[in-house]
Amino acid sequence: MAFNHLPAAMHDALGPLSVTPVTHSVPMAKNHRPGRPPESGDTRPSPDMILDRLATGAGRAARITHTEHLPPRSGTHAIWPDRIRPEVISAIGKAGIDHPWAHQAAAAEHALDGESVVIATGTASGKSLAYLAPVLSTLLDGSEAPNGRGATALYLAPTKALAADQRRSVKALAAPLGNAVRPAVYDGDTPVEEREWVRQYANYVLTNPDMLHRGILPSHPRWSSFLRALRFVVIDECHTYRGVFGSHVAQVLRRLRRLCARYGADPVFLLASATAADPSVAAGRLTGLRVREVSDDASPRGELAFALWEPPLTELHGEKGAPVRRTATAETADLLTDLTVQGVRSVAFVRSRRGAELISVIAKERLAEVDRSLPGRVAAYRGGYLPEERRALERALHSGELLGLAATTALELGIDVSGLDAVVICGYPGTRASLWQQAGRAGRSGQGSLAVLVARDDPLDTYLVHHPEALFRQPVESTVLDPDNPYVLAPHLCAAAAELPLTEPDIALFGPAVPELLPQLEAAKLLRRRASGWHWTRRERAADLTDIRGGGGRPVQIVEEGTGRLLGTVDAAAAHTAVHEGAVHLHQGRTHLVRKLDLEDSVALVERADPPYSTVARDTTAISVLETDTEIPWGQGRLCYGSVEVTNQVVSFLRRRLITGEVMGETKLDLPPRTLRTRAVWWTVTEDQLDAARINPEILGGALHAAEHASIGLLPLFATCDRWDIGGVSVPLHPDTLLPTVFVYDGHPGGAGFAERAFHTARAWLTATREAIASCECEAGCPSCIQSPKCGNGNEPLHKRGAVRLLTELLRAAPPEPPATDRPGT
């Protein structure tokens, strides 16, 4: 039997540790912008005051395991390069900015020198202005050209919301320049009647990689005048382009560069990133160009109080009698309620769409008990909403009409929500870069701010709230992406050939894997080689071969059965787990039950209902080894990395009582299996190692299974992945290795680089895994260390002590890890 754990939108999955909390405190500074007196009439409470109020109440203070204080920082000014037009400098001055910060001036200088540059500084450090100054100046120059359209610029954002927000900012900043700068958003929400105007007249087009891939590049003849004049490509929040999504975007950008060259343009790329390790290396891998780096943040920063918060144990018992902590969702809803009552403007970030809706619903119910006017000042914000719903929520948040928002990461990126005082983060977001990005949403006006990380009941979150040094004493991660992934590269070669026939000189642009792929695409009759190059042979659009978000397949539409109203969409890859028959679906605070999932027509029919439970899908997984790329001895055991095929099937779902998470029952499902060819890391142990670890056959399956669960929970600490990006399988006797084996694999076709990073950090990764299990205060295993609510085998069997002994024996002979510079992808 194989024991498995599949990547999916897990709720509160694995986790905690009972370790003496580490505390660290720096004297708090006064709550005002460094170097300036407090604003007249600014009566907002300090971060410490807000936190003290949150900690008031029975047992509340004990939930804070650590508080980190980041003191305020003063800024360093510079002067704009003399090539920036005086009209632009004047417009910037009218916006209240007399002098740039040193990093803004440096980035602008590189841009004007024709050098691609990445600005990797902290949240609210003015990255937008660093690239806007040279862009606006160049557009102003172009507007005075005697003939032709003049210069153009393209802005790419990972979300529609960020592009819309940036358009507002650009329009306001460029207002004194008159008609010289004509910004316009071009995405799926742009009305058809406006699109032709954007193509013909806009000179600063804001879009996203999806629209560039599906809409602009395939229609490049209609964009020829824009592309011919393209001087700058701005890539905002470029640290989000990682894994499979980042690999797709890298190939989209290579297609863009190829078409620009066809029209005689060679644009400069300006990238903005949150603080990241080796940003110039990641930016170079993304664009395929040499990129200069500006990472010395010269901006001022208000004080930040950052609290780590662990929900308490409840009187309930879960599977196998394990103790159950209060859910992070319920705890976050309480904190958002308390902040709203205090009048503190806040955002609560949560990983899942359902979680955002649920937090909003709970907070509204509790606020109604305090003041009937307050529920209307809290809302949910997530992907899948209709465009008009998203825009209305963004306006309400900007205006201050909303005090509290439960949001997915759609609001994490760059949107300027000035005036927020607090951020609550429901569960570790997967990377330190995302953690700091979310925390930085508050305090953007220079005031002090509070951030609270609420731990989920899973191994990584509990490890972090009891090991704060892993958050506050470690650098942010490197960005992992692999543009040469054949599952990513192949459809983009087809799309490029459909745009213009591929020629020999294009091979170097798209990477070293191209020569091997082209014959395969010819054999599949997707491309045909002629004298002029490789041509696309099909009638259908080549750009439709792939979904660059990595989901694959047509999105499933969620339709209200009685009215026919479209409520939203869900990615095809998530449909089996999110909108199976019987699933609970939340939309705008209203609960629906899925009555039918039609996979052929990609439609889920739902009806209004108010069940007292949520639903969680269960699945089973089998794995086979296709090819072993690398293996090294760990004593008698082996550590391996290579290609695998994973077969998964959703087989049932659990009904869990709201708030408590208590399991109410299980219902079988009949859904087709899905296969995935991907990359994996795996380790084996021998009979002698099992004897040394005192592992007998009766507990072997449980020990392997427990080690697998916990290692999946801890991997995001070592690779730039979310736990939803990875899966695992454990087998007491695997037919390919003929030994007890634990697999951890990338949950994306062709891999995403996460398993490879796990292979190269295996000693540290598995050491942390062993420590997390051994340190947990439970007796036989719980969600804080080895249990997973997403486990396809219902957490049966698991053996906590066996997992500790097994990992101890495995690590005893583990070789030292190579230095970081020797590892691929670093």
UniProtKB/TrEMBL annotation:
Could you give a GO molecular-function term held by this entry? helicase activity
Question: Which Gene3D superfamilies does the record match to this protein?
Answer: P-loop containing nucleotide triphosphate hydrolases (3.40.50.300)
Q: Which residues form the Helicase C-terminal domain?
A: 335-487
Region (Disordered) residue spans: 21-49
Domain Helicase ATP-binding residue range list? 108-294
Question: Membrane-spanning regions, if any?
Answer: none
User: Keyword set for this entry?
Assistant: ATP-binding, Helicase, Hydrolase, Nucleotide-binding
PANTHER family cross-referenced by the UniProt entry: ATP-DEPENDENT HELICASE HRQ1 (PTHR47957:SF3)
Q: What's the protein called, per UniProt?
A: DEAD/DEAH box helicase
Native source organism of the sequence: Streptomyces rhizosphaericola
